[in-house]
Write a structure and sequence with these properties.
Layout: H1 20-46, H2 48-55, H3 61-93, H4 95-115, H5 119-122, H6 125-155, H7 161-190, H8 192-199, H9 201-210
Length: 232
């Protein structure tokens, strides 16, 4: 004889209460934040050939490119540390605050890359400062993507969580594509010589200058059991 299993009743505390308007704002804010982060991150890769000549001028052209791309790879090693660090802070202080902090760090480090003098001006300090800025970028990107993923998951309805989360990757790819378009446009307008001289700095300075932080703090969707970590 089969025994009847007693099932614990579901209460409102087990269900995410969703406001469609707030959900759209949350997804848009997280996706835009992701796009801005990865625009800054990707621009470096698209101007690597110019950075190799600016920061490693004494080397062979092929070595210049390898050195520039090696510097580009460093942030990928730092990202896990950023994810762990900012993930813990997000649990404690709330996703919105930490997401805003990671984007500010990314903005400052990106802006600083655009201001670093060339190797001919300050010598070995040029690539050292570049490396420090790239490490800061990697640290912030690790925290931003981790926080944004959880941020979206905490906002999303139970049956559409995967679909809503996919918008983060859409934002990442959109940021890369936009970065490529901006670099191509600037290099076409100013010409190769001017681009190698000063034009490569424009994408770094431009995105930092026009960044809109107000897009991040979207209104929070509530839960009956209390305020989710994304909202605190």
């Amino acid at each position: 004889m089969l025994k009847r299993k007693k099932v614990k009743p579901i209460t409102l505390r087990d269900v995410t209460i969703i406001d469609d308007g707030k959900l759209r704002k949350a997804i848009t804010a997280a996706s835009l934040g992701n796009a801005m982060e990865w625009f800054d991150f990707g621009v470096y890769g698209f101007v690597a050939y110019a950075l190799g000549k600016v920061f490693f001028p004494g080397a062979d052209p092929s070595v210049q490119m390898v050195a520039a791309l090696a510097t580009f790879s460093v942030p990928f090693l730092i990202r896990p540390l950023g994810g762990l660090f900012f993930g813990m802070l997000g649990d404690k202080y709330g996703r919105q605050k930490i997401l805003a902090i990671t984007i500010v760090i990314m903005s400052i480090s990106t802006f600083c890359i655009g201001l670093i003098p060339s190797y001919d001006t300050i010598g070995i300090w040029a690539p050292i400062l570049l490396l420090i800025c790239k490490m800061a970028q990697g640290f912030s990107v690790g925290g931003e993507y981790t926080g944004a993923s959880i941020f979206v998951a905490e906002y999303s309805p139970d049956r559409k969580r995967g679909f809503m989360g996919s918008w983060l990757d859409f934002g990442s790819i959109a940021g890369f594509v936009l970065g490529a378009g901006v670099v191509v446009l600037i290099s076409t307008i100013v010409g190769e010589e001017n681009f190698l001289d000063w034009g490569w700095r424009i994408p770094f300075l431009y995105r930092s200058a026009v960044r809109d932080y107000r897009a991040l703090p979207a209104p929070c969707a509530g839960r009956d059991s209390g305020v989710p970590a994304a909202c605190r």
